[in-house]
Design a protein that fits this description.
The chain is mostly helical and 163 residues long. The protein has helices at residues 3-12, 19-39, 45-57, 62-69, 73-85, 107-129, 133-158; strands spanning 60-61, 89-93, 101-105.
Length: 163
């Protein structure tokens, strides 16, 4: 099928059949839910993610956290400053690199994460319960595959053209 025919078929197909549209709708619904829950705890989604990552991974640099959260280092710097002001994290100079600050979870940060997680997990359980174990496993595998394709396509789109 040539590109023109493919374009015409895509334009004529209902938008609901578009996989990217469905992924985006699911992502928007998830973010809307989490943001509403986390707002009650004075947290943004990025701050919650930082707390969760620090709990699981231990101390990390701002650059590592930025990559894990999918934000710029500049954005992460602001997030970490805010979180440090709220005493949710502490930052100390890395023993390896004097210019690098390592963020760690404080007791206050751990306690807030524990409380927020109790509400966030309700959605995770509801989603898990909506599928049979086989469907759950398949959905996870399919989402991983879709994510891999999305990452590969993004890399191709942002790669420098060869001349």
């Amino acid at each position: 099928m040539d590109l023109l025919m493919e374009w015409e078929c895509t334009v004529e197909a209902p938008i609901e059949n578009d996989i990217c549209t469905r992924i985006r709708r699911s992502e928007q619904a998830l973010m809307t839910h989490h943001e509403a829950v986390l707002r009650a705890y004075g947290l943004t989604m990025t701050q919650y993610t930082v707390l969760l990552i620090l709990l699981r991974e231990g101390g990390l640099s701002g650059a590592q956290l930025a990559r894990s959260c999918g934000v710029t280092q500049q954005s992460m710097s602001s997030v970490l400053t805010n979180m440090e002001t709220k005493e949710l994290i502490r930052r100390e100079t890395s023993p390896v690199h004097a210019k690098v600050q390592i963020a760690t979870l404080t007791d206050e940060g751990q306690a807030l994460l524990d409380r927020a997680y109790q509400e966030v997990i309700i959605l995770e359980r509801a989603l898990t319960d909506a599928f049979t174990p086989s469907e759950h496993a398949s959905l996870c595998e399919l989402l991983e595959r879709a994510t891999t394709v999305l990452i590969q396509q993004t890399r191709r789109s942002t790669a420098s053209p060869t001349t």
